[in-house]
Amino acid sequence: MPLGYIGDFFAVGLILGLASFVVSIAAVDSGSPYAQLGSSRLRSFGALNEPTVIFVTFVLALTTHTDLPYAFGATLRSSAVQVLRPSHLLMIAAFFMLVLVETGRIPVENHGSTLEFGQIEEARVVEHSGPGLAFLRWGSYVKQLLLYTIFANVLVVPWGLASTGRLDRVLLAIGLLFVKALAVGTVVVVIESSFAKLRLYKIPEFTVASFMLAVLAVIIFLFEPSFGDGQLTVFGAIATITAVLVLLLEFGLLRSQDVWEQLRLYALGSVVVAALAFATAASGHGGSSLYVLAAVTIGLKALVFPQGIRFVLRNLEIEPRVPSVLGVPSGILIGVALSALAFVVLRPVHIGAEAALPLSGLPVAVAGVLVAFLLMVLRPYAPSQLLGFLVLENAVSVASLVIAPGLPIILALLLLFDVLVGVLVFVVLVQYLAVERTAVRTDVLNRLTG
Amino acid sequence: MSWILYAILGAPLAAVLLALSGGWRLARAATVLAGVMSLGFAVAIAIAVEHGRVLATAGGWIRLDSLGAVFLLATGLLYAMAAVFSVGYLGVDQSHADFPRFARRYFALLNLFGWSMLLVPLVADFGTLWVALELTTIISALLVAIDRTDAALEASWKYVLIASSGLGIALLSIIVLYATGTHALGSAYVPRFVRFLAHGHGLSRDAVRLSFVLAVVGFGTKVGFVPMHTWLPDAHSEAPAPVSALLSGSLLSGAFYAILRFFQVSVASGQRGFAEHVLIVFGVISLVAASFFVLHQASYKRLLAYSSIEHMGIIALGIGFGAPLAIAGALLHVITHASAKGLAFFGSGSLLRGYDTKEVEGVTGAGSAMPWTGPMFLAAALALSGLPLSGVFRSEFEIVVGGFERPQYVGVSLLLVFVNLAFFGVIWHAGRMVLSPQAAPGHGRPVRERSAWMIAGMLGCLLVSVALGVHLPGDLAALLSNAAHRLGAAG
Questions:
Q1: Three-state secondary structure call for residue A321
Q2: Do the beta carbons of residue B63 and residue B54 sit within 8 Å?
Q3: What percent of chain B has pLDDT over 70?
Q4: Residue A292: what pLDDT?
Q5: Of B190, B203, B298, which is closest to A408 when you measure between CB atoms?
Q6: For chain A, domain boundaries
Q7: The pLDDT value given to residue A228
Q8: 8 Å CB contact between A322 and A385
Q9: Among B33, B29, B28, which Cα is nearest to B12's?
Q10: How far is it, in rounded angstroms, from Cα B112 to Cα B48?
């Protein structure tokens, strides 16, 4: 394709920015205060998005030494291992959050709402009508499709593209693109229907979070152990994705200010860990006894612990809000720094284990342990600290499944039993604390010092 | 001979069952009996393994060598004495309405705690070792919180949270060790100590180092090494005195035992120098920080807690110095520290029952008001500071001589300076409490000895401490040198 190489990332960004600039000028020209408010909001939040775009591009550029999306797609196609690097997975997460912001989806903006207070994109076009409005709508749909295409065809599944001009290939590629975009759209719809819109002044936290993930992706890229030539196994793929998912869920816990939401995130993380145990057993590592471990993990960590803790906390009628002692962006920044530290420290370490094990999951799991510590420090509330301990245990479980899947089942079950007893003791103490102090804050626990 | 391993694990469990099923008097009797029996069994086991014999049973899951026997002895001693002392310590509250329930709960937990700590040196692999150590944390957290006062709950919460998180890191160290072992031992195996020792050279250098550091940080949280020590003074000062004694003399060294197993693996894989350096660094930091905290303390139980941190630093230094004499001294220190610290905490418990305060300022003239407790508390302070005639003197002396032998001049000089600093702190406070004239008896009941059982517990510890200082039995010397040999002292 002779013109293929003109479509680099910065050119795409420039064209989109130019179009957005024109729409903003038109909005200002209309003289309506809402339209002007919309464009000014869009400008300020857009400025916060730029760093994320740049860092995502960094990851692309570091991998391929160009900023061409086609070259990147080709690199990914050359070895599927590339898609499963921890840095790449984090970059996908960052870019997905970026897509949500850029297309004005929940949790950033609500298209169905008629309330002007939260409107951004919608407010900008509020004074237009007729063919003009149609054009603007069409433009925003094109932008959405473009972003979905980059997300799907460049970052996640760069397979099934037409490499020649033959009509059947092109038609097939178009069909596939439609399917991929539909899949991305489905995920967006699920998010739209399960989350609430953020308040306007909370939106920077969301963009900062995506920026942090992009930064983490770059740092991890620089420090992750050489991974390119390892052969791809299903187990390796699932292990790395699981480790990154557990880490991302921990960042979710770090962001969350609500103890019920934290409980749900923990349960979700446990399900992911159990899935990893299933995958480990199914791929022939560690023997079929891991099915038992997976079942016990689901039962205990995804059902009994969260439901039991919820039951106890409901009975104690505790205050569900658990505000962070630091601002959320700062907390996430420290979490990113700690995760980067795990990679820097573990980079020169050779475990010398069996070659088939996906060792890149280990630094991610260690990062998970460190972020769990941070969670306990930043949330001086007994329930959150208990969850911090459980999340830490999850991260260690991931490490154990990734690099030591052969650990005898009897030991693994003993470990789980210990955690169970530990949780019981924690719960007993939480009850005492609640009865004695009518509060479960733990930063008031500072009588004993020196 | 392996029946004795079942016996030593069975006795405390039987006592737990009796405490849960019968009345509190039965619970009390069962506890004392189980404690004394455990001590007897521990001595018998130690004599059996002193020349390098290894006892194993239960399909190899339970295994004891001379190194484990050292820690079994320390735990057995304190468990027995704490059981005796508890009778008197709880007896003071006997008139309370809910005393029977409280006493049964207390004795059941105490026996369970003793059982879990006896289990630690008896297991044969890293996984079960971790499980046993986490069990000790969980059970002792309940014991720390048993009074349900604000301060006790706070201490217990900090303790269980910090120690469990530390053990999370320790679990990571076991996993790293397991992963590197897969190269030599196949993908699925039970991580027994002996297997790693036999295949030491098949382990990756990086992985062994990483797992050792993680183990020192993780288990070191429970040992009380300084940056991770923050739970320790709170838990020790708020727990009932017999529990404090068990925490300090037995639980801390039990966690140190886990580090020693990692140390063994490091030696076997040729990483001895690195492991020694790590231990010396943590030992020095703990020693220095703790001796300053000892200097100005308002509460005598916290004072003793910081002294425990100091002594754990000394043990770490002894192992780190690496000379055979220093290692044997460090292992002896585990036992001598247990006896001296047991005596000190029992004394503090007796003083607390007499004076109803944990403040140094509140205790005056203990020497005349409590004619047994006062002098013995002072003797404990002197013993802890390493004065001759006490066992601690012998073990610290061996460590210092071993350090000069190596030579590790920097470590030894720091050790000498800060041990002396802690000596001033401990003696200054204890001397004031015991030797000062008694304040005029104001309101409230007069201060007097509260129970002969408490004195008996203290006397037992005093006896052991002095006996070890005057003459080291040949059996114990053989046991220690064999254990030091297992830690690679010959090399």
A1: strand
A2: yes
A3: 98
A4: 86
A5: B190
A6: 1-222, 224-450
A7: 39
A8: no
A9: B33
A10: 26
d(CA B370, CA B458): 13
Residue in A closest to B237 by C-alpha: A448
CA B244, chain centre distance (Å): 10
> Could you tell me the end-to-end alpha-carbon distance of chain B, in angstroms, rounded to an integer?
31
Whether chain B has a CB inside 8 Å of the CB on A352: the answer is yes
What residue spans define the domains of chain B?
Answer: 3-486
Q: Give the whole-angstrom CA distance, residue B89 versus residue B246.
A: 14
% residues pLDDT > 70 (chain A): 89
A447 by Cβ neighbours in 10 Å (0-12 / 13-18 / 19+) ranks as: exposed
Taking alpha carbons only, the member of B227, B225, B249 closest to residue B236 is B249
| Nearest-neighbour CA in chain A from B204: distance (Å) | 5
The pLDDT score that the predictor gives to residue B304 is 93
Kindly provide the b/e burial profile for residues A172-203, where b requires at least 16 CB atoms within 10 angstroms of the residue's own CB.
eeeebbeebbeebeeebeeebeeeebbeeeeb
Q: Is the alpha carbon torsion for B11, B12, B18, B21 positive or negative? A: negative
The answer to whether the predicted template modeling score (pTM) of the entire model surpasses 0.80 is yes
Please indicate whether, in this complex, the C-beta atoms of B210 and A411 are within 8 angstroms of each other: no
**Is the ipTM above a cut-off of 0.95?**
no
Per-residue confidence (pLDDT) for residue B110, from 0 to 100: 96
Residues 6+ apart with CB under 8 A from A15: none
Are B26 and B104 in contact by the 8 Å Cβ rule? The answer is: no
Closest by CA position to A404, among listed B255, B169, B221, B185: B185
pLDDT band at residue B491, thresholds of 50, 70 and 90? very low
Please measure the distance between the N-terminal and C-terminal CA atoms of chain A and give it in whole angstroms. 72
Determine how many CB atoms are found less than 10 A away from the CB of residue B1: 11
Residues in B closer than 8 angstroms to A436, CB to CB, are 148, 150, 153
Bridge-partner residues for B63, per DSSP? B56
B98: how many CB neighbours lie within 10 A of its CB? 9
From CA B288, how far away is CA B283, in angstroms rounded? 9
Partnered with residue B299 across adjacent β-strands are: B359
Contact assessment for residue A395 and residue B115, using Cβ atoms and an 8 Å cutoff? no
Which residues, numbered 113 to 152 in chain B, qualify as contacts with chain A under a Cβ-Cβ cut-off of 8 Å? 125, 127-128, 130-131, 134-135, 137-138, 141-142, 145, 148, 150-151
Q: How far is CA A69 from CA A93, A289, B291, in A?
A: 17, 44, 62
Token output for A70 = 């086609």
